[in-house]
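Structure ticket #2291
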Amino acid sequence: MVSLGCPKALVDSERILTRLRAEGYAVAPDYAGAQAVIVNTCGFLDSAKAESLEAIGEALAENGRVIVTGCYGADEAAIRGAHPAVLAVTGPQQYEAVMEAVHAAVPPAPDPFIDLIPAAGVRLTPRHYAYLKISEGCDHKCRFCVIPSMRGKLASRPAAAVLREAEKLVESGVRELLVISQDTSAYGRDIGYATSRWSGGEARAHITDLARDLGSLGAWVRLHYVYPYPHVSELIPLMAEGLVLPYLDVPFQHASPSVLKAMRRPANEAKTLDRIRDWRAICPDLAIRSTFIVGFPGETEADFQHLLDWLEEARLDRVGAFQYENVSGAAANDLPGHVPAEVKQERFERFMAAAGRISEAKLAEKVGRRLDVLVDAVDEDGAECRSYAEAPEIDGAVFIDEDFADLKPGDMVSVEIDEAGEHDLWARRV
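Resolution: structure written out below.
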């Protein structure tokens, strides 16, 4: 299995592997030992599509029997145009079609002695954390995005199903649940916030209720892809109480009103600053991460300066950015005023420099604080860990370079921060 793209695609890969393991298939560690290769593609940006095509080509060269699935798989003509030798092409969430393709390529040989799978399924993440997908699809019509055309409209899972999966994950040793979807704030809206029953009682399919129920399981709960709707404020008291990690991943994308309007973003930048202030008043430790697009069509220097000024006022804890690029099928491709590549690059560098200064200043304020951290990896140089303010893969880390020999991934330890950099922290055990 070659899994590309975002954590949501990773969950799709896990579900496919779980189904395969249930039928007795084994997962090979390399191309040479496999009878077939599944490539789960990303199709969000043209650069991601290129990476997907490259991965498919590599799998064909190394193995020859390749099944393609995922977001880019929705464009079968493009896949087969580049690689006509692939065995099958399926779109995102088409688990049954993937299984049929595997059955055709490698007929199953059921054996009741080897068909058992872990209760939590097959996962591609370390044992101590797991992504928990609560819905598929999105109802927004952002001009730069083609995800709704790939994954469809919002389709929320019943709350009881999410909670049962979370229970199994925690029982299997997971210390951190990372809640993901295309639009976490909208969870349950499409099913009327329906209730369902799990071992803890009645559960309502609303993000506030779900977060509270997840927080009762005893693991860290981290929320991703949270649009800044007004009802998000209901989550902040749960963070202040310690039920949910005081961490919000909010995809702001920009701050200029004219650019947000051109993007068709469902947010008002002025109210967003007010909400951030209100959130921090309730939960001063709140860490906010976000992503931004630099050089969206029509973005003027004044728009970009507005974004920089907004960033200085918002003082977000973790920030990522990428330069706008056309995506096949996106409405933004036809907008006037595309920004020259050299201007996008220059703005990107200025933006990341500003974000880095803010990050460095905010991390410096943590020196001397005591925090609980989760150990992700240990080698001869030390332990790489994360506090509540760092999500895996996308944020910085907390490093312990003394007194770490007895630590192992999944351990939770208390530390005191004694050094800060631009994106990372260093700490000693206490």
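Closing remark: The chain has three domains: 2-105, 129-364, 370-429.
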